[in-house]
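ARCHIVE RECORD
Type: protein–small molecule complex
Small molecule: fe (ii) ion
Source of inputs: curated submission
Record status: active
Notes field left blank by submitter.
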Amino acid sequence: MAQAEIDLSPEIQELGIEQYARELDSNGLTIVPPEVNQFGLERIDRIVEIILERAEAMTGSKFTLDDGPLDELEFPRPELTPEQMKQIEARGLTDALLKPTQFLIQKLTQVDRIFRDLAVNPVSVALQNHMMAGQTRLSSANCFVKWQGDFGYGPGLGLHADQGRTPLPWGPVAHTGNSTWCLTDYTLDGGALAYVPGTHTEGKPAPPPERVKDAIPAEAPKGSVIVWHGATWHGAFPRKDKGLRLGLAIYHRHEATLPQEDVPGQTTEAMAADSDNPEVYRVLAGLNDKFPYRETQSETVPRVKTSVAAG
Ligand SMILES: [Fe+2]
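STRUCTURE (tokenized, with ligand):
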């Protein structure tokens, strides 16, 4: 499948980010450094504080950037049949199940305005709209809290395309897109995102095993935003270093794709108003969309005519 040349929007041109849009077209992923996305490192530091506080409140363990969790953590033991447990062991995923080195903090746009400000970052929104023909919406806002270890991705690096639930064949317009903000430096030994360049044009939900060797790390300094197409194969390298890797995923969807979180149902007008750009936030959250409707009857209904117009 050849990737069609996509017109650049006025927003892309006004922001001067043509090279990043073109890299998305050719590579399926681009990294926009802090000096270009201009979200500001002070606000990134504030987000890190909120994430560390929330990680402690959720797990009971204190977390630091240098050391990760200060206590040993375990996931609640899942109720699995011996047969399911055997399958997990056979796939080498027992450690991922019982010895966590990563977890997700979810629904962050509900938690603090600063995550809504991140979601309306003009550079990120313009690049998402570039991939989605102007129809981008929010899908979810989650932080990946990751520390030393493998998280069970193993030699396959967990490579997949995010829009894998959408029926094939896929076209050039993305069904989903990711804007992951690096809250810490992303390096190979630090457990960076792994991706296979150019695979957004291959139209497959996951690579065959022989293509794993083509994966490279998306290395980026703290404050960068990594933007990628929902068809791009990606996963993660294991974190070999001590300490934390924090990645804040503002996950987008095309208007026609279901969100992960019920963003349209759980975003209030007050939340949209309390953001850097209420108008854009309203659009991204889907508050202006016709679907899904929540009224019993969203279309007007004709009634039996009861009077003739006064003449
Ligand atoms: Fe993914």
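CURATOR ANNOTATION: The CA atoms of residues 82 and 88 lie 10 Å apart.
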